[in-house]
Trigger factor ribosome-binding bacterial domain-containing protein
Amino acid sequence: MEVILTELAENHKKITVTVSKEEFLSERKKAIKKYQKTAVVPGFRPGTAPESLIVKMYGDSFGINETYEKAYKAFEEEVAKNQFKLLLDPVAEFSPEANFSTGENVTVNFEFGTEPEVQIEITEIVSEPLYAVQLTEQEVDEEIARLKNENKNVIEANSLDEAEAFEIITHTHGHDGNQEPEHSVTYISKSDITDDKLQEFVEKFQQKDEHINVFDYLLNPEDKKFDNLRSSHHFHLGRMVKFEEIDELTLAKKIVPSKTFENPEEFKQFLKKDFEEQYNELSKDIFLKKAFEFVRSKITNLPMDFLAKWWNSYEKNKNNTPFETISGSLVWELTNSLINKTLARLLDLQVSWENVIDFYTEQYTKTLPEDQLETMKPLMKNYVEGMLKDKKRAEQMFDRTYEYMLKNALVSHKTNPFTVTLTQFREILSNIN
């Protein structure tokens, strides 16, 4: 076999494997003999039909598969010799001049794309700032006050004078069919309503007039706290209500029912740690996003002509979707794969199934009380191992574990994160968005 490598364009190549007449006819002869041993042909005992009759009945298909397999092996050897990293499977085609009866002009063209070289150093990737968020005592108090306000006890009011707010029950879709509509509650306080329209609103509310346009009565209809009402399919008018303040330990039972706190200070320190963990995870996510964006900017010269040919081959385009329609999403997917490979190479990152099991076991047990960990951890590990038997779910779990380990590996290169308060971090977030 003769093997010729041709550069078609940057990261777009072709390997042509030419099969001599003698090689093809030899493979063809072997294929016919193999089939002849078991062929059932009318008028002949099994395995006795003459070769000429078998060829006449079944045409020139003999030897093609065997020849292709040999040609593909030659292609793989050439790829390995040149250390090419294939972007996708090659597009393989026999030459249109090939004569499978005589063995003349039998060549296989393997057209393929290679991964672009990404010249980058880890120091460049981690040059973006990373923020370590630490809440001040005042910020913790403010967060507790916010949570207490959001979790007040709601009590039905007996009169308008006693009422502090009006309950609106919003549904995400209609009541048709068997699906129960999801609902949430929005409270409109008296202070949210314009003074000159308060009485009219109250009358319609008490009459349960659900054709009312609530936003016509509001002082600030664009307020974010009315987003649920604005996006709902429809709503129902509920009760006039008043609110009862709750203390820290009652709040603790509401939002952390699995844990018991001895005093408000213990709950306060728990919240401080929890908030800092949440915001620092967000900070890491932003840092990781910036790192991905930086690597993405270095990935250029994808072989678009090859991608178009690949899309239109192998029945990938069964729905006759034009390449132009899917090219953006295909490039995005390929680029993400290259980003992951680049970062994994630079960080020497390897993810095993043991890593996946450990990560998910930790996720499922982290909220359990300490006195249950010893008993529950082996059970959770067995549960995770069972989940991994589902191939699709296992791939998703592997990807999530990879993202977690990648984030930590990148963050480990930042030995000097900027310490900021929650207020400062929120200001940073507003500028990013």
Notes: The first helix runs from residue 21 to 36. The mean pLDDT is 89.
